[in-house]
Amino acid sequence: MNALRCVAAATALLGLAPEAMADGRKPGSLLIYPVHRSGVEQDWFSIVCVTNTNPQPQTPTTFGGGTSVHFQYFNVVRNPANPFQPLNCVDFDRLRYMTPADTLCVLTECDNATTGGGQQGYLVVKATDPAYFNKPWAFDYLVGNEMVVNASGAIYSVNAIPFRAGNQVGVGQSTDLNGNGRCDLDGMEYEMAPDQLYMPSYVALVDSQLCLVNLTGDPRDLNTVYMSIWNDMEVPMSATVLFNCWFDRPLTEVSPAFKESFLQLLPNDPKELDIDCDNVGDLETGWAIIDSIDVSTPFGFPVDDDGALVGSITAGGPTLLGTGDLLWESTDKQSNGVIFTP
Questions:
Q1: What ranges do the domains of the chain cover?
Q2: Phi/psi class of residue 36: alpha, beta or left (left: φ > 0; alpha: ψ in -120 to 50)?
Q3: DSSP characters for 164-210?
Q4: Within 10 A of 175 (CB to CB), how many other CB atoms are there?
Q5: How many C-beta neighbours within 10 Å does residue 223 have?
Q6: pLDDT tens for residues 152-201?
Q7: Contact assessment for residue 192 and residue 337, using Cβ atoms and an 8 Å cutoff
Q8: CA pair distance 322, 316, nearest whole angstrom
Q9: Do 244 and 219 form a contact (C-beta atoms < 8 A)?
Q10: CA nearest neighbour of 295 among 250, 334, 331
């Protein structure tokens, strides 16, 4: 039992470690925080931070490297019948100004729109031109992360997902090239989204959740996600999830392929994962490729045959038996991602 506690704690810390060290991400003009929680599900709450890494000095007449930032909280309207398909995704906005080298941290429960049952969903923060109202511009200096904490003291941290201004936008210019009022992740306005996501590993016993954000179509459009899954003996499995807007649910709800009891029925490596050093495997592990294969309207009309996704692995339980880590991304990209604006 002591060994199990040790591996649980180690797994949680390993999930946090990449966020505490450099992970190769670069500052961007737009940040996506895959999860925000405000007083929901075991009293979880989020502290979101964004930093302006442009240190241009202030003068008596100018703030030099300052920028405005537009916070867009996308709050799901929960569906009791199906947690993967919320009834809607409602946008709540705040606009702020950041001076050079400024950092801003907010408690989402105070900053977001409040409701009796709390809010949850994802958050987009984009740089906007201070000389105009809500005019997104090329300002590749934003970095950010968030901490998610519950009343029991459990905590995980995860970085924001940055998107730099596209190759058709000069520094300080508007990113809305087509004038549609949306941030298009098409390579021209902003960087493109990944074509596939990778879950590098999972431990079936650990209380982890999968979070995905749909970036193709509108909040009610349905994204069909196909998961190619392998266990620790390279036995192939698959799962399909149909969702709209956003979800953050336990892996065991996503598919039985992530359950310890199911994985024990399959051929597996007898020496993985050995947690008590007796040369006998104790826990089942695996990994997965996550790929959108269709986006359609609620009425079945096609939107796109390959949607854009971003996401993370998060901790769902009341203890640190989970991780906070961004999903890995493929080098192949796709140009149909968009930040929805009502």
A1: 2-339
A2: beta
A3: PBPTT--TTSBS-TT-SSSEEESSSSBPPEES-EEEEEEETTS-EEE
A4: 25
A5: 26
A6: 777 788 999 999 999 889 999 999 999 999 999 999 999 999 999 999 98
A7: yes
A8: 7
A9: yes
A10: 334
